[in-house]
Amino acid sequence: MPFSALFLAALSLLPPIHASPSPPVPEPIQVVELPLPPVISSRAEGACTATINRRRTGCIHQVFDEFQAGDFTPDGNHVIVNIEFVGAPAAPDPASIYSGEQVILIKADGKTFPNGDTWKCLSCGVPASNAQSLDPERDYPHVARNGKQALWGHNILDCGEAPLASSQCTPNKTHIYPIHWPISVDGSGSGGIPREMRLHPDDIHMGWSSFTANGGQHTYFGRLQFNPNPTTGLPLAPRYDLVDVDILIQPNGASPIMANGTELHLHDNAIAAGELRGFSGAGDEILYIGSPREANNIDVFAVHIITGAVRRLTSHPEYIDPIAFSHDNNWFVGMDTRGSNRQMWMAGMRYIPPLIDLVTVTAASSTRNNGVRRFFQPILIDRYGDRGDYFGQRVNAAGDGSNGSINDPNWNGRADPAFSPDSSRIVYWQALVVSPACGGTNPLPCPVSNAPGGRTYRVMLARLTKRRPQQPAPIFKVPGRIPWATPFPPGASIPTQYSLPAGNYSLYGKVHGVAHTSITSDPTYGGLQTVSVEYENYSDENGYSINGTESVTLTRTPSQPWLSKLEWYSDLYETGVVTATKKTGPGGFNLTIDAQANIFEADGTLTTTIDGIVYKQPANGT
Ligand SMILES: *[C@@H]1O[C@H](CO)[C@@H](O)[C@H](O)[C@H]1NC(C)=O
Ligand SMILES: *[C@@H]1O[C@H](CO)[C@@H](O)[C@H](O)[C@H]1NC(C)=O
Ligand SMILES: *[C@@H]1O[C@H](CO)[C@@H](O)[C@H](O)[C@H]1NC(C)=O
Ligand SMILES: *[C@@H]1O[C@H](CO)[C@@H](O)[C@H](O)[C@H]1NC(C)=O
Ligand SMILES: *[C@@H]1O[C@H](CO)[C@@H](O)[C@H](O)[C@H]1NC(C)=O
Ligand SMILES: *[C@@H]1O[C@H](CO)[C@@H](O)[C@H](O)[C@H]1NC(C)=O
Ligand SMILES: *[C@@H]1O[C@H](CO)[C@@H](O)[C@H](O)[C@H]1NC(C)=O
């Protein structure tokens, strides 16, 4: 199709962006736990005995090392799961293949596989010749829409013409191929280091993120091309290459905050992808965690693959991260801290422009976790996203909150949730808080798991009981290249992006008022150091006016690019629809947090109060 025809066809599929219908009313949701293999508390060879599993098809440990649930097979009856089998006997015992990190399907329909198990291993016992040079990264398992392939970390597993869930899909028919991202000019070497790969609904294209050496991250989009006999680049084994790669940066595109003379301008049309999160149900939009639109508030955005039009999907002050769209393209489910009040002390005051975020964004993305403990729960939101006082519906709200109940706050959501192909069910998984995020000096005692076998992880199925099965939306035809992105062929370097110069600026509110902003750069290491703002009757939203001052200084440690050390002073007042304050205590608030460890450590206080409700920071180490 010529480009213009494709463009028009694409546009005709798009609902009008500005006409968001009135929000849906909450609907009934029923949540059950899905079965997993039997659990043992020992990893010793042979600990998975015939007494524990009489069919000798594997055992898992109480504590998860490598566990992730993914999405459904096309029949909606199975869910893909990455699991670590433990306690297998030594070879040549036939049960020895149920060992180590493997990818399995679990039953989601209450039935069993022909052998009587509620699971089936896809990767166990695959002949070595069919699985050469597997990539050790096996996260974010995902079933291709065709049902015959799976993304398993940085590998593609396939069963030829046999659906993965069928009994025709046997180990001997299974192949597992590593994914290679050539980045050197001649294609040599082990390639780029992608992370968090997400397969497009067309099963051909891929999105991913990749860290930079200095604490940054970029997002990419490319096409999978099978390379049966590579002559360059590692591994030299049958593999999938990522080709026609674009980096999701718009050449000369707008940045979220730009200077023009002595004025700052906010650009809501900027495509500012921090981490790629996947695709819409039709695949017409790429989902990402983006540059904040409001201070300390981390949200997900969608950008159209052809037009580059950006939609802000969430605006709740709390933190959202994993997200999955329904295949009918009308809903998404996000893993979000909303309801936990984890982030309200820093983000609860609405409509503060994202100025201090120039130095605080990494810290604000880190305080959401306490080490491995997350505070996520699954939230169902319609495709138009948060708006007005609509902030979606918690999927697992029903329950009495008791230990092990579906809304037990000690069971926290993990990545990724998924919709069934008929859009009527959601699967997600959770982990129970474990030491050191509880117990010891932590005021939270460690709960005893009452999941089967004392497991500290569980897979949950939510039925949207009032919904009828829906047809998936037609899959969007991805053009050869993303028109607004930057080609990133082997040998390319990351394009230089706009950086806001240090200086003194005025940012005029969209409604009224001004924010006098002073920005300095780090004299030793470069990058921005201090952002100080004085708000004068500032308003970006009718009914919300802000006065007061806020100043944050970031101290960099070049050897630890993920470490934020912040010296923070806030004295903000908001009036109108709400009466709110955001204030630091005497001596300010000094926060140290590493984005890869997520342990909260602060001196002093930062407190947000909204209509008399006081939101305080977490205690150190909690
Ligand atoms: C798989 O193939 C091997 C030879 O490659 C053969 O020995 C084995 O019997 C086959 N297994 C099954 C279950 O067909
Ligand atoms: C900067 O502001 C001037 C004067 O308002 C305007 O003419 C110009 O287009 C602006 N430049 C940019 C890049 O926005
Ligand atoms: C429930 O969990 C808490 C820890 O959050 C623990 O103190 C308590 O003993 C548990 N109650 C039961 C009945 O297991
Ligand atoms: C910004 O203003 C402060 C005083 O408010 C002044 O000390 C500083 O030099 C100014 N910075 C620039 C880059 O003009
Ligand atoms: C502050 O904004 C309000 C509108 O919300 C306006 O009525 C008032 O005059 C402004 N005050 C000043 C000092 O600009
Ligand atoms: C902000 O200050 C202006 C006067 O400059 C005043 O009219 C307004 O009520 C104040 N608003 C808040 C939220 O303090
Ligand atoms: C935060 O650090 C600054 C600079 O070291 C110090 O002056 C201030 O007292 C500290 N505040 C608190 C609450 O510890």
What report would you give on this structure?
The protein has 622 residues and is mostly beta strands. The chain has a domain at 503-616. The chain contains 3 helices and 38 strands. The strands form 8 sheets. Strands 8, 9, 10, 11, 12, 13, 14, 15 and 30 form a 9-stranded mixed sheet that branches. It starts with a helix and ends in a 6-residue tail after the last strand. The chain binds 2-acetamido-2-deoxy-beta-D-glucopyranose (7 copies). One 2-acetamido-2-deoxy-beta-D-glucopyranose binds at residues 127, 170, 172. InterPro entries: 6-blade_b-propeller_TolB-like. It comes from Penicillium arizonense. Keywords: Signal.
Low-pLDDT stretches: 1-16
Radius of gyration computed on alpha carbons: 25 Å
Please give the share of residues in helix.
under 10%
The geometry reads as: globular
In whole angstroms, the N-to-C terminal distance is: 55 Å
Bound molecules: 2-acetamido-2-deoxy-beta-D-glucopyranose
The helix/strand class is mainly beta
Q: Percent of residues in beta strands?
A: 35-45%
Q: How can the largest sheet be summarized?
A: 9 strands, mixed
Mean pLDDT: 95
Count of DSSP strands: 38
Total DSSP helices: 3
Please render the helix and strand layout as text.
Elements: H1 3-13, E1 29-34, E2 39-40, E3 60-61, E4 68-72, E5 78-85, E6 100-107, E7 119-121, E8 142-143, E9 149-152, E10 155-158, E11 175-180, E12 195-199, E13 205-211, E14 217-227, E15 239-247, E16 257-260, E17 263-266, E18 273-279, E19 285-290, E20 300-304, E21 310-312, E22 320-325, E23 331-336, H2 344-347, H3 357-364, E24 377-382, E25 393-394, E26 411-413, E27 418-419, E28 425-432, E29 457-464, E30 486-487, E31 503-508, E32 512-521, E33 528-541, E34 544-555, E35 563-576, E36 580-594, E37 601-610, E38 613-616
Parallel strand pairs: 2-3, 11-15
Antiparallel strand pairs: 1-29, 4-5, 5-6, 6-7, 8-9, 9-10, 10-11, 12-13, 13-14, 14-15, 15-30, 16-17, 18-19, 19-20, 20-21, 22-23, 23-24, 24-25, 26-28, 27-28, 28-29, 31-32, 32-33, 33-34, 34-35, 35-36, 36-37, 37-38
The chain binds 2-acetamido-2-deoxy-beta-D-glucopyranose (7 copies).
One 2-acetamido-2-deoxy-beta-D-glucopyranose binds at residues 403, 410, 444-445, 447-448.
Signal peptide: 1-19
InterPro entries: 6-blade_b-propeller_TolB-like
Keywords: Signal
